[in-house]
Structures are given as structure tokens and as C-alpha cells.
Amino acid sequence: MSLPGLMPMLAVPGAALAVGVGLGLAYFAALRWTVSLYAAGGGWRVPAMLTLGRIAAAAGIFGLAARLGALPLLAAFLGFLIARSIALRAKGRVA
Q1: Does 14 reside within a domain?
Q2: How many C-beta atoms lie closer than 10 Å to residue 90's C-beta?
Q3: DSSP state at residue 65
Q4: Is residue 33 in a domain?
Q5: Within a domain: residue 5?
Q6: pTM for this entry
Q7: Close Cβ partners of 60 (under 8 Å, ≥ 6 residues apart)
Q8: Rounded to 5 degrees, what are φ and ψ at 43?
Q9: Helices (H), the chain
Q10: 95 part of a folded domain
């Protein structure tokens, strides 16, 4: 297979990887915000809505990636794991 024929095959998993990283960064930022709200002892509604939003966004993105195929799903999950690693390193916890 030539390079021009290979590029469209790699475009969707590459985009899924980028979307996975973006989703992961947003997910873990919302998680950090949720934890700080719970720890501050404010109400429970905003943290609960953040939690539901986080889970719904992740389910929606991974569901869409699954409809595109196994490789885009794995690429999106790899991006999510990369974002997890970035979030942990930013807090000084290496995983």
C-alpha cells in the first residue's frame, strides 16, 4: 500500500487519539474541580452535576469511537491514558 493510500486509514485513529487526549484533560480537570468542591464542603449539586457530565462525556466519546471501529476506540483510550499520565505528573504523582 502506498503512502497516499495509507494516510486516510491513519487519519481517523490519529484524530481519535487527539480527541482522547482532549477528553482526558477535560475529564481530569473536572475531577480535580469536583474533589475540591467536595472538600470545601459547599453543596452537593454542582459536584454531582460535574460527575454526571464527566461520565456522560466519556461515555459519549468512547461510544462514538467504538462505532468507528476497534482501532479508533483503542486510540481514543490511549489518548485518555496519556492525559491521565499528564494530569498525575502535573500534581507531582508519577504513575
Answers
A1: no
A2: 12
A3: H
A4: yes
A5: no
A6: 0.85
A7: none
A8: -85, -175
A9: 3-40, 45-68, 70-90
A10: no
